[in-house]
Amino acid sequence: QILNPFYVFQAFTLVLWLSQGYTEYSVAIIILSIISICLTVYDLRQQSTKLHDLVEEHNKVQVTVCTKSEGCKELESHYLVPGDMFLLDGKKLSLPCDAVLIDGSCVVNEGMLTGESIPVTKTPLPLVESPMPWKTHSMEDYRRHVLFCGTEVIQTKLTGRGPARAVVLQTGFNTAKGDLVRSILYPKPVNFKLYRDAFKFIVGLSVIGVFGLIYTVCVFMSHEKPVADVVAMAFLLLTLAVPPTVPAALTTGTVYAQRRLKKKKIFCISPQRINICGQINLVCFDKTGTLTEDGLDLWGIIPSEGSRFQKIHKFPSSTPLPWGPVCGAMASCHSLLVLDKKIQGDPLDLKMFEGTCWV
Fold it and tell me: Where is it found, in Gene Ontology cellular component terms (predicted)?
């Protein structure tokens, strides 16, 4: 943080000013800069610690690992390595790694990765006698067999061959969740217009300062002043053109803005971008369902027959939906599951099924 080019220039400026007797102003800037550096470093450290704790919390899960030599034994999940085989014993489990299912089937909540709170059914990897690697062979249904790190196993179904089993594919930063954490830790650099403009502004001020420096040297030399005075005054004029408080002011402003956002439960992983937010005049969202409410309501259904629309059947209605192709499709064409005596699945499927009043 201190080796930022701005702060290096600032250090040079302050040394020069102190040598010329500008003590009070220099000391004030030194105090302000130290406070702003400390605040920035403290905020970054806090964010890193919180992120580390969040990731570490999910990495301390007890799993049952099976080996040929030692049989089955309990292990902490951070000891897992690719190739290990572990059991899914029916308990709810937050997966600590990416694993491929080889036996049994699972119902998994992938909300952490996709944002959709719809349980997904995972099936075991099929036994295919093919020389091609399985990833290449089944890339289109890769997601059907892989249990992703950070997602939660809600239910496991056993097969005749024994308990549900999975083999560790990837751990740590190589997993789906690790990729997410890595993108938070190291966001893609964005070349914002504000930074380009700020750089141009400082270059412009520097050019003015250089003209001042040349003029000062010429005037002082014509008056035959000592060389030490000429150099000191020339550099002084250069440092006055570029304000040395710019980095401290920007940092302090950003930290203050971050604190205000935090009070409103808004968190920022890249504080530098807060300055840019003032320039935003349009925000686009891809989906209203996740912003307004989780569920959907079934308003009505319009059957068609003989290439014509029939009467609207509104929900909820005192008369049940009459039996026919529409009712049959609504009652059977869905991917709902019964978990703990409660129907779970896609909200659209759920509302559609409830509308039929079937069990």
Answer: late endosome membrane
Alpha-carbon distance of 319 to 47, in angstroms, equals: 57
Q: Which domain holds residue 335?
A: 300-356
In degrees to the nearest 10, what's the CA dihedral of 254, 255, 259, 262? 70
Give 258-308 as a DSSP string.
Answer: HHHHHHTT---S-GGGHHHHTT------S-SHHHH-S-----EE--EETTE
Q: What is the DSSP letter of 333?
A: S
CB 59 within 8 A of CB 181: no
What CATH number did the domain enclosing 73 receive?
A: 2.70.150.10
Q: What is the pTM of this model?
A: 0.55
Answer yes or no: do 246 and 269 share one domain.
Answer: yes
Shared domain check, 150 and 72: yes
Domain end among 278, 308, 326: 278
pLDDT along the chain (359 residues), means of 10: 74 82 85 82 82 72 80 81 84 83 85 73 77 59 80 80 83 82 75 69 82 82 80 78 74 83 81 77 72 71 88 83 87 85 82 87
Output helix, strand, coil percentages for the chain, rounded to the nearest 5: 50, 20, 35
Q: How far is CA 249 from CA 6, 36, 37, 257, 268, in A?
A: 12, 8, 11, 12, 19
| Of the residues 138, 154, 185, the one at which a domain ends | 185
Q: Which two tokens stand for residue 153?
A: 């196993």
Cross-strand pairs, 66: 72, 85
- CA 12 to CA 350: how far, in whole Å? 68
| 67 and 177 both lie in a single domain | yes
Active site residue 340: no
Give the separation between CA 293 and CA 287, rounded to whole angstroms.
11
Place of tokens 């190589």: 174
Same domain, 193 and 181: no
169 and 199 assigned to the same domain: no
Give the pLDDT score at 55: 72
Total tally of structural domains belonging to the chain: 3
Q: Which of the following is catalytic: 53, 179, 286, 346?
A: 286
Note whether residue 288 is domain-resident. no
Q: What is the pLDDT of residue 278?
A: 76
Residue 87 forms part of a structural domain: yes
